[in-house]
Write a structure and sequence with these properties.
- The structure is a homotrimer.
- In chain A, 76% of the residues lie in helices and 0% in strands.
- By secondary structure, chain A is mostly helical.
- In chain A, helix 4 packs parallel to helix 6.
- Chain A has one domain: Membrane associated eicosanoid/glutathione metabolism-like domain (Four Helix Bundle (Hemerythrin (Met), subunit A)), CATH 1.20.120.
- The first copy, chain A, is elongated, with a radius of gyration of 20 Å.
- Chains A, B, C: Its EC number is 2.5.1.18.
- Chains A, B, C: Belongs to the MAPEG family.
- Chains A, B, C: It is an enzyme of class 2 (transferase).
Chain lengths: 159, 159, 159
């Protein structure tokens, strides 16, 4: 048992893997924040989608009018879905990349740029910034993931 | 080769990692069930979104009337998306947490509470239960994930 | 440090793990392609959802008419969401399956069928092919994931 634990510890003690663990966790926490922002806008804009969520506003028509879409709520939800679409590939490809033996400095560059790009993307979406702010921040994160995928396939291709 | 296999076996033989593998698989199977429930409601409520899905109901207007949204279908789909938004962070952060050397009992507590909370969330969404049933089950899973993220960052922060 | 690196190298050098890394990366790249196809249809169909995305088409009513939904855009988006719903379970369960010590030939069979099924699913969705083309390709990928989940739970169940 303690031998196995030591083996696992070696994985988490590896610098590249620790960097991956750090940035993957940060970017997932950022994504989870979108749920809180959605809830915040649903409550302040009084815009809900489930009838049981408006029960506290009274019965019948008085509650029903809060079952509506709100532009701010929908905007956060689009940002959240865009996070899912882009952070899931980063998680999967990034893990394999971290295990493919990259230079620490190169790996840090990938992880930091991706994380920075996704934080910028969220600000660009929620403020919102004029285009191409959101488009560029999306593209940078996308390009970083492609670059890591290339390294993974170059190192370990096994079809 | 057999040496490598032994090395991998050590990973899957580690108790914390096995517990992670078990609960991650269970919670993913639960999420996959949402696809079947969506299909069930689409077929029983005759509410489809793709024209090619209604071709067996005849041509023209007779089929077109089944291209519609249905409250039950939309409810399951919201539950499915909420699963994605919450289970993806659990998968990523939970894996890193399992590799960060937690006590087995503490790890089991995290995995079991998260899995239980997500099962409750699904029931709360589909029945539906009055609020704050769904809200609380969502918050418990969210808090468990935050707790695991804290452990990962405390153990292995590498910025 | 070099000892740890060697340990990691053993993981990526393992044939089953390399096969997982290869197919997981391919299927994630395929999913990422959906973002580009969505962008392509949004631009060619001039159908946007964010006001800031139509600013280059002029101001006021002239730009506002491009804030609309388009059947082709919505179709790609549904395919993208279906990818997320099915590829996330494959990533998580597939990783655990790869670590559960399957035969290389069995593992390759699972990974190849899943990847082929998801590529077919995308073509079936985007062309679109008549049903049950899309339904079958979805079901095949689903069944492969269930099969891997069964192996994971049989090998390492720890509740």
């Amino acid at each position: 048992r303690s031998g196995e634990m030591a083996k696992l510890a070696q994985l988490i003690d590896n610098d590249v893997f620790r960097a991956y663990a750090t940035y993957a966790t940060i970017v997932l926490l950022k994504m989870m924040l979108m749920s809180l922002i959605t809830a915040y806008f649903r409550i302040t804009r009084k815009a809900f989608v489930n009838p049981e969520d408006t029960a506290s506003f009274g019965k019948g028509e008085s509650a029903k009018k809060f079952l509506r879409t709100d532009p701010d709520v929908e905007r956060v939800r689009r940002g959240h879905l865009n996070d899912l679409e882009n952070i899931v590939p980063f998680l999967g490809i990034g893990l394999l990349y971290a295990l493919s033996g990259p230079e620490l400095s190169t790996a840090l560059l990938h992880f930091r740029i991706f994380t920075g790009a996704r934080v910028l993307h969220t600000f660009a979406y929620l403020i919102p910034l004029p285009q191409p702010g959101r488009g560029l921040s999306w593209a940078v994160g996308y390009a970083v993931t492609i670059s890591m995928a290339y390294k993974v396939l170059k190192t370990g291709l096994f079809l």
